[in-house]
Amino acid sequence: MHNRRCILTLLVSFICMYYVYNIQSVNIARSTTSSLLQYKNYCPDKIVTMFNSQGRLGNQMMDYATIYVVARELGYVGFLDNAHDNLNRIFKHIELPDLGEPCRTRLEKSHWDTTTGRKFLELSYNRSTNASDMAKVTASCDTVVFGHYEWVPVLFLKYLDELKFQFQFRDLFMNQALTTIDLVSRLYLGNTIPLLFVGVHVRRGDYQNHFNDLYHIKLLGPEFYVKAMEYFNDKYSDKHLVIFLAVTDDNDWR
After folding, report:
1. What residue ranges do the domains of the chain occupy?
2. pLDDT value of residue 27
3. Three-state DSSP state, 128
4. pLDDT tens readout for residues 162-174
5. 159 backbone dihedrals φ, ψ, rounded to 5°
């Protein structure tokens, strides 16, 4: 019975989300505030950036967070590497601009040296590090460059509220999500048991090669998700009707 309920609610959610996310897309103009434009033709003295930032949205968010918190910690100006437009399309309050030509020229002259960035990471992970140690690393360096996929979790916590503000979804995406929940809720009008929504993220796409190349393992199959859904049903179904909302980057996968 639990299997049938899990599969039914998952299929319903896929259908509703397919409908919502295929609504005609809306173009969101790039932010043109003066705080972003001022660095197009000007490079400040002290900057933080990341060399060759790669990946899709999740990785871009982590790269952004690293640049943002380190710049805040040091009092430098943070710059993205061609990621502003994509992040600004999705989130309301993206503050960091892309590198302008003056900054790129400066970085190319130093061959995008990541020495200070690596040293900063070493100190940030060392519990015995104090503020003076960090100051010594950056005192003689006006540029802090990180390699891609380098993160500073200890500073994420320190500036967590600011990061949450930066990553507030635009109304378009919030409305799509709320519409999905509303569509599913209407299917159960008159139901006397409260609904409990559980999100299911099925990441596939590029992760199939990623898992195979790095860990020599395959992606999780349907049986994993069914088992996980049964767990939530067993835990909450005595007081709730559990509804699973599935999100995936591989709509053809079943």
Report:
1. 34-167, 171-248
2. 44
3. coil
4. 999 999 999 999 9
5. -110, 30
